[in-house]
Give the backbone structure.
Amino acid sequence: MKFRCERDVLVDALGAAGRAVANRGGSLPVLSGVRLEVAGDTLSLTGSDLDLTIGVEATVAGDGDGVTVLPSRIASDVARSLDAGSVSVATEGDEAHISSGRFESSIRVLPADEFPRLGAPAGEAVTLASGDFAAALRQVVPAASADDARPILTGVLMTPESGGLRLVATDSYRLAVRDLPGTSVLREGQSVLVPSRALRELERLLAGAEEVTLRLGERDATFEIASVRLTTRLIEGEFPNYRGLIPSSYPNRLTVGREPLIDAVRRVKLMAREATPVRLSMNGDGLELVAITQDVGQAHEQLDAKYEGAELTVAFNPEYLLDGIEVTPGDEITLETVDHQKPAVVRSVEGSEFLYLLMPVRV
Amino acid sequence: MRLVIAHCSVQYTGRLSAQLPPATRLVMVKADGCVAVHADGGAYKPLNWMNAPNRLVEADGVWIVTNPKGEILTITMEEVISDTAWEMGPDPGLQKDGVEAHLQALLAAHCDQHLGLRLVRREYPTDIGPVDLLCKGPDGVTIAVEVKRRGDIDGVEQLGRYLEFLNRDPLLRPVRGMLVAQSVRPQARVLATDRGIRWIEVDYDLLRGAESRDLRLF
């Protein structure tokens, strides 16, 4: 196998495919590498940890077809270390030679025949505008759990809703729901649970892309963005019944400027150390935020806000609260509450496509 | 892994400047290029360190470690007391035995409630190692239970070896297998199902009845 390309082409392709590479290789050491295949002037790279697979195609000056597997980390480090310009990659026996200008290195390759054969994507192709989809991912994915002990919660539920698509994620402390009206991807009654890790990678790939093509198989989902293809296993299991958690009405409603609230929470949370919550006191005069950490200090800030309901103080994890407010669109948001122990809802005043449900902290 | 015990001084320049005056210290150079300088105290944190990728140049009692961010660690060796290197091989990763052992104890205590099985014996001895839990199912069949914090292919393989061994015992066979973990990896699920081994995910917090200050949605 032999090819030549610009350094940036190689760096970008190795970087994209390398995002899916297993950290340690696990029980299959070849998975610590990126598979390179040259056919004519097309270079195809694949990285995988078996749960997530990222394939990239790039146009190169091919000088010999073939397949090899390069250790991902070192190949990427070498490519990034090179000056801009032409890079040549050629394999000879169990070594790959990377050269550029007066630099030359040889890397011991991994056995290409041990790299798992990955099937072609299954399912009907549906093309979506990437802008809306990326925005929805940015709003929902952070609410998914990072705790592998509850694997269902590490996924984002994609489900049909009123002729459109709904994305839902929760880590059991907060829940984010985003509707994409008019986006028809799933059959009625069909729901899939996509690992949030894969969607985080997808979010990165969507930056600057115009559209994304989605294929849903029985066990995996494939997203194609220009020359990059991301395939992820779907999570099996039943997502919690989130609908029952969202009350149809709340007795208390606070309306406040989004930016001033973000700034105030950021300032006040500096005194919310060691898992201390930020308290929100709401009454007819507006909103007061308070954080007190024993032996560290305290901070409070008064904000102009419109409040309808009974006087109430409710405490939240400041990071979770910020996560929700930051991704809620519009200049003004509402915070609807029942009492200091029941979930509160953050919404935009301007639209109902996004909802963020947040559990208070007991104080 | 290279371990050097030396009387040395260390100068770091990069995001800030820091100096370690002359003293006897342990300098570790790991296979991936990480360099760490340790004192004879403290459980985990080195006095100074440079994460890989690094470039290490040794010359006349001076080690100069540089990285692509432009940071420089200069180790001046006044006296090298010991200099050894070991090939350590691949690292299987961290196994949190405390949690795993506790998980096993909790499951043993409430075997019927959480697994629907009757416990025969915990740590059932075999010639190839103890089986975490040996149980009887509702139909009287013997079940070997392997408890893991995270169920992966290795756990399935391990349980497969136990089953092969246990099924040679005419008093026990047929013996079926069950992999119990806080989470079971997709590949392990496929392999377990393929080998007729049941797998179950359990919630550690629920098992220990942990009460959190945090309120949850569900």
